[in-house]
Amino acid sequence: MTTQHAISVDKLNVSFGDSHVVKDLSFAVAPGESYGIVGESGSGKSTVLRVLAGLNRDWSGEVDILGKRQPKLRDKAFYRAAQMVFQDPFGSLHPKKTVDDTLAEPLAIHGISDAEAKISRAMQDVGLPTSFRFRYPHQLSGGQRQRVAIARALVLEPTILLLDEPTSALDVSIQAEVLNLLQALRHERKLIYILVSHDLAVVGHMCERLLVMQFGRGVEEMTAAMLAARMPETAYARELLRASEGFRRAG
């Protein structure tokens, strides 16, 4: 694999029983890039993200991240470099842990000192006041919970954020706030993003390039400019674009 890629995936295959959910998928992400993976529900896009994050260990192919060939079982150093933000902020936060506990835990696991400063910085970066540190998830709104989930991912100062539909569980009114926050954080911290979404508008806003998936395969890779110009090459991508725009008009 060439070293100019921050992330490269070659002939990735994933099956669950008799179901072949990712089929010979290959793509590469450049340093500093924000890369989108889009497709309908069941297209395999979240499965790809879980393989990258080390959460799914049953796959074949080659995955290189930050210049290292990745084994099925990742080491601690990997989790400092790559963190995931999940779709449902309520489900991904422990209901009986305060925000402070949630942010302190990864630092303790990795033996990182200066927890106080790192927690304060992460809270500040996601726009949460320090008074929220001792609140529980049920005392926060959906948008605030997702900000805590983003802060938890940032506290280890990773290079890569893997984002699984990070705003789809939120009210429409606060989706844009969280997306704008993620945009700002990417530039401030020079992060690499892989964003999975069914929403082409979100991916067009957040990413330089995107991969369209259908039935586990990559059917088309395009730039955000091609998407903005309504110029997908494949019939499926054009259909997805039309469906996305139709949904937005109806909503």
Strand order of the largest sheet: 6-7-8-3-9-10
CATH topology: Rossmann fold
Cα(first) to Cα(last) distance is: 44 Å
Shape: globular
Summarize the main sheet. Answer: 6 strands, mixed
Low-confidence stretches: none
Keywords:
single chain, 251 residues, alpha/beta, Rossmann fold
Describe the protein's topology.
Layout (H helix, E strand, L loop, with lengths): L6 E10 L2 E11 L4 E5 L6 H8 L7 E6 L2 E2 L6 H6 E4 L3 H4 L6 H11 L5 H11 L16 H13 L5 E5 L7 H18 L2 E6 L2 H7 L2 E6 L2 E7 H5 L6 H16 L1
Parallel strand pairs: 3-8, 3-9, 6-7, 7-8
Antiparallel strand pairs: 1-2, 1-4, 4-5, 9-10
Helix pairs in contact: 5-6, 6-7
Description:
- It is a single chain.
- By secondary structure, the protein is an alpha/beta fold.
- It has one domain (7-250): 3-Layer(aba) Sandwich (Rossmann fold), CATH 3.40.50.300.
- 39% of the residues lie in helices and 25% in strands.
- The protein contains 10 helices and 10 strands.
- It has helices spanning 45-52, 76-81, 89-92, 99-109, 115-125, 142-154, 172-189, 200-206, 224-228, 235-250, and strands at residues 7-16, 19-29, 34-38, 60-65, 68-69, 82-85, 160-164, 192-197, 209-214, 217-223.
- The strands form 2 sheets. The protein has a 6-stranded mixed beta sheet, with helices on both faces. Strands 2-1-4-5 form a 4-stranded antiparallel beta sheet, covered by helices on one side.
- α5 (115-125) crosses α6 (142-154).
- It starts with 6 loop residues before the first strand and ends with a helix.
- The model has no long low-confidence stretch (mean pLDDT 92).
